[in-house]
From TrEMBL:
Matching InterPro entries: AAA_dom, DNA_Partitioning_ATPase, P-loop_NTPase
Protein name: Chromosome partitioning protein ParA
Domain of life: Bacteria
Species whose genome carries this gene: Parafrankia soli
PANTHER family: COBYRINIC ACID AC-DIAMIDE SYNTHASE, P-LOOP CONTAINING NUCLEOSIDE TRIPHOSPHATE HYDROLASE
Stored CDD domains: ParAB_family
Length: 330
């Protein structure tokens, strides 16, 4: 089971769209996929459920990630995540003949309350001083995912909120890989730099606290998330060629040591904007344009190539020594 967190510092760069479409495409190739919506906006969830159904069948029935977090008791074994997972029916019907499955751990609009509880539990800026609470908070999701058997899912995709708060950090602590979508504009590439700085600092801090625990808490392991890379999204095309200025963004990511996917996702308002009510990601839509189908196929092939296990040369490990600003220690 591979766990990939899809994160960015900047909002509206295509995280949720990529999570839904990459997940649905890989499920339709016959794999078992779990999507986790960690964003209180619940956009990923609303890609698969109508708002009224979300209310009655998920929120009211406590089948959301918020309900799972709420069921957590300190020092106790958390309830298995499987009890909170749902299978969106429209997608299930669309991929039934292809042998794969797509499940969802839905979000909740009040997930922000959980985040506030977690921050309070951490105890503010000096969080790393209380190691018991530190790992209780940051290992929760990883512990929840460990409750699945390796055969339950081939791939878990986590759609993160557009910040580097406690919930995103818990996703980083639970993932094998990070995927960073970005629009080819200056604000978005600056967002990548911010994210890398925050990420390097968190991984460094976590591993430093973890080292103090080796021998005391055998379950605590070093974090070694690998950067799958940046995927450029909403790229403008004209006559089959990108017209967005891509080179500066590719160079800037390269200068940070982050690989950039060769494949990218073109801008297509017709396919992506205002289609949430369809409960079917664009990649499974019968109206999918041939251009977009080609983009998605190339993207998914490259994604699968990059998450191949053991020393895949196409990913980079997070190098905290380059990215970390050790000022937090003072
Ligand atoms: N390739 C695309 N072409 C056109 N529109 C797109 C494309 N990808 C995403 N969109 C649209 O852009 C908006 C933002 O995309 P999305 O919600 O995936 O971004 P996000 O990074 O998850 O945003 P947020 O920070 O709000 O979580 C949505 O309305 C989505 O439908
Ligand atoms: Mg989103």
């Amino acid at each position: 089971m591979k766990v990939v967190a899809i994160a960015s510092y900047k909002g509206g760069v295509g995280k949720t769209t990529l999570t839904a479409n990459i997940g649905a495409a890989i499920a339709s190739l016959g794999r078992r996929v779990l999507l986790i919506d960690l964003d209180p906006q619940a956009n990923l969830t609303l890609n698969f459920y109508r708002a009224d159904t979300w209310h009655t069948e998920l929120a009211d029935q406590r089948r959301t990630v918020k309900a799972w977090f709420e069921s957590w008791r300190p020092e106790a074994i958390p309830p298995p995540l499987a009890g909170y997972v749902t299978t969106p029916p429209v997608v299930a019907a669309a991929i039934a003949a292809r042998g794969g499955t797509l499940d969802l751990l839905a979000s909740h609009l009040a997930l922000g309350d959980i985040e506030m509880d977690l921050v309070a539990r951490l105890g503010g800026a000096q969080a790393h001083r209380s190691t018991r609470h530190y790992f209780d908070v940051y290992q929760r999701l990883a512990t929840g995912l460990a409750s699945f058997s390796p055969n339950d899912y081939d791939l878990v995709l986590i759609d993160c909120p557009s910040n580097f708060g406690v919930i995103t950090r818990a996703a980083v602590a639970a993932c094998d890989h990070l995927l960073v979508p970005s629009r080819p504009d200056n604000q978005s590439t600056t967002g990548i730099e911010h994210l890398m700085g925050k990420l390097g600092r968190f991984v460094w801090e976590y591993n430093r606290v973890a080292e103090l625990q080796f021998g005391i808490r055998p379950a605590v392991k070093r974090l070694e998330p690998r950067l799958l890379g940046v995927v450029l999204t909403m790229v403008q095309y004209y006559r089959g060629r990108p017209t967005s200025f891509l080179r500066p963004h590719i160079d800037r990511a390269g200068s940070l040591g982050i690989p950039v996917f060769e494949s990218m996702l073109r801008l297509s308002n017709r396919s992506f904007v205002g289609t949430a009510g369809a409960q079917l990601p664009a990649v499974l839509s019968p109206d999918l344009s041939p251009d977009l189908a080609r983009d998605m196929l190339a993207l998914v092939e490259e994604f699968l190539r990059r998450i191949r296990p053991a020393g895949a040369a196409t990913t980079r490990s997070v190098d905290p020594s380059v990215l970390v600003d050790p000022a937090w220690m003072s």
